[in-house]
Amino acid sequence: MPLFIDAQAPVIVQGMTGHQGMTHTARMLAAGTPIVAGVNPRKAGSSVAFTSADGGEVDIPVFADCQQAKDATGARASVVFVPPRFAKAAMIEAIQAKIELIVVITEGIPVADTAYCVALAQRHGVRIIGPNCPGLITLPNEQNGAGTNLGIIPDKIVSSGPLGLVSKSGTLTYQLMGELADIGFTACLGVGGDPIVGTTLLEALQSFEEDENTKACILIGEIGGDAEQEAARWAKEHMSKPIVAYIAGFTAPEGRQMGHAGAIVSGGKGTAQAKQDALEAVGIRVGKTPGQTAEIMREVLAGAAR
Amino acid sequence: MDLYEYQARELLEEQGIATPRAIFAQNSHEVASAADEIGYPCVIKAQVKTGHRGQAGGIKLASNRDDAILTSEQILPMSIHGHKCSGVLVAGAKNVLHEYYVSISVDRASRDFDVLATANGGTEVEVIAKEHPEAVKRLHIGALEDFDLAAATEMAASIGFYHADVDQAAQILLKMWRAFKENDATLVEINPLAKVGDPEDESSKTLCALDAKISLDDNAAFRHDGWERFKDPIQTDPYEQQAREHGLHYVHLNGQVGVIGNGAGLVMSSLDAVSGAGEEQGTGVKPANFLDIGGGASAEVMSRSLSIVLSDPQVLSVMVNIYGGITRCDLVAEGILQALQTLNSAKPIVIRFDGNAAQEGLSTISQANNPRLHVAKTMEEAAQTAASLAAQFSPSSSWPSKENR
């Protein structure tokens, strides 16, 4: 079974013709992601020229909506770059077209809109990743084939290997990918920094547990909510593979939002310390810095190999 | 965004939830005329965006005009848990017969909305939840569903509202839900929702929201005129103000090392690393701010960010931590040099670049040949260097701000 989505799955980009959409569509295509269409009702019928992975030119057609794009191309995944005020409609459109995997990069979506779309996606058997996330990268291996890149995660940092990574933060994802580049990854997933997200840390661990190529997991958390505690409770009962964690935000003051909408300690809840304690209580080691986290992972892998 | 009580009341009143008559006042003259209008005794309540106001002496009863003036003169200059008082609410005093707690909030774990209520109101619901978990009732409102009168009535009955109050309580729950939904709130809390009136006269008894706490979703500001009407009258931190005007995520802290990075997680991580380094080095040096330049920042954004951080007299050294994904380190390097051209600052800056165009960025920095610029290989090293430079920069070797830790 492929991890999250198979590499050949055709991908559409909602908001492709915007600045962010253009930049990252070009990047994803160069990384080999099979992008087949863009969606923009005002530019339906046109197409945009990009450079493909092999250096040739490729024309990506623009459709009026997700259903038309899916009918014409067989799209199975979508990457969403549309601005916050249009994001709810964009997500609903993709869900109703039964696009299997919707990766929402957009930052700044009202939490009520996200809650609605996540519930609707669950009802339709569709998975949302994000919002406010860097997306998903899977690396080439026998099961995944070529690997795919859905979102804004730089693709040149890492190669294939036994690690799975799940994170609330984009740049900390890149940081740990960089630290452990020589070991390599099966997939790296940014779940997003919003209070409600479509795929939780726990759900990502579940996928890594089921994936036979993944041998160990890195979990990167941050202040706010208790997704880390939930993941820890689940891992205690169900996870056979080692997890090493990192938590950001020990120095964050109470009641202040630290960049991400979800990164806030309120009423004494959601502290980094509480997350560390919950993880350590179930035997998950937590690094003090990203560098130390990578070192612990090396130790864990060496221990497992012995 | 958290609202003051006087603002939160407005939103409840718009839905028709009963509240005591009250007037917001910002000086003792206003308080005197407000109190005269409300009548005596009245309650003078500090308007601060934090809890436990009562215990901190921020809520007092005034029995006459002189008392109201005197009390307000005590409360107005107060800071409660570091929050400056923005004014007082002069409210009619009620004869309280019973206190309930009700709230509606975003439930991050179940990814829907949570109605929480207890018949033992008046104190912290967390305390009640711990000591009498059976007394706290919880109901989820699904994100695809609505909350209707039948559900509200069932909830009200299960909370343990006195028989005669159930219908009224159900109406209040329903109105709270409307206030929550229509205003894109993340929290609507009434504590206490009080039964007030004359104990001898049944017809005088009614449910009344004696306090209100509402938080709004900043991400939804675009469909509410930017929450213009809830602008904080209190002067905000000038650095936070400047950063906000430029669309930067900035939080002012009370340490000595300015921290700039890309991505909220990486910046938080950098703060922790600085704090850890200060502890290890025995100096107690701490981060002075959180500043996220975001993804794909230009040289201008970096230059502006560095200018804001360097203009803070509290800052003694700066750590710039960039992992270039979309962000290009060479542009960040240009931004740093641009800022230094216009600023006359002797403060040392420690730079750590990795990822996109890191080599180009580092060579730009080294070509500048500026002794104030230090390069670190890892973010841990950058934090160590920045912390130790901040300690050296200060006149005394041991940092004296123990109360800041």
Task: Describe the overall structure.
Chain B: Pathway: Carbohydrate metabolism; tricarboxylic acid cycle; succinate from succinyl-CoA (ligase route): step 1/1. Chain B: Heterotetramer of two alpha and two beta subunits. Chain B: Its cofactor is Mg(2+). Chain B: GO terms for molecular function: ATP binding; magnesium ion binding; succinate-CoA ligase (ADP-forming) activity; succinate-CoA ligase (GDP-forming) activity. The complex is a heterodimer of chains A (306) and B (405). By secondary structure, chain A is an alpha/beta fold. In chain A, 34% of the residues lie in helices and 23% in strands. Chain A has a seven-stranded mixed beta sheet with strand order 3-4-2-1-5-6-7, sandwiched between helices. A seven-stranded mixed beta sheet of chain A has the order 9-8-11-10-12-13-14, sandwiched between helices. In chain A, α1 links the parallel β1 and β2. Chain A starts with 10 loop residues before the first strand and ends with a helix. The model of chain A has no long low-confidence stretch (mean pLDDT 95). Helix content of chain B is 36%, strand content 24%. In chain B, the strands form four sheets. In chain B, strands 7, 8, 9, 10, 11 and 12 form a six-stranded antiparallel beta sheet that branches. A six-stranded mixed beta sheet of chain B has the order 13-15-14-16-17-18, sandwiched between helices. Mean pLDDT of chain B is 92; it is low at 395-405. Chains A and B meet through α4, α5 and α9 of A and α8 of B.
Itemize the secondary structure elements and their pairings.
The complex is a heterodimer of chains A (306) and B (405).
Chain A: E1 11-14, H1 19-30, E2 35-39, E3 47-51, E4 57-63, H2 66-73, E5 77-80, H3 84-96, E6 101-104, H4 111-123, E7 127-129, E8 135-138, E9 149-151, E10 160-167, H5 170-179, E11 185-190, H6 201-210, E12 216-222, H7 227-238, E13 243-248, H8 272-281, E14 285-287, H9 290-305
Helix pairs in contact in A: 3-4, 5-9, 6-7, 7-8
Chain B: H1 5-14, E1 22-25, H2 28-38, E2 42-46, E3 59-62, H3 65-75, E4 79-80, E5 83-84, E6 88-92, E7 96-107, E8 112-118, H4 125-131, E9 136-141, H5 149-159, H6 166-182, E10 185-196, E11 206-209, E12 213-216, H7 238-245, E13 249-252, E14 257-261, H8 264-280, E15 289-292, H9 299-310, E16 317-324, H10 329-342, E17 349-355, H11 358-368, E18 373-375, H12 379-393
Parallel strand pairs in B: 14-15, 14-16, 16-17, 17-18
Antiparallel strand pairs in B: 1-6, 2-3, 2-6, 4-5, 7-8, 7-10, 8-9, 10-11, 10-12, 13-15
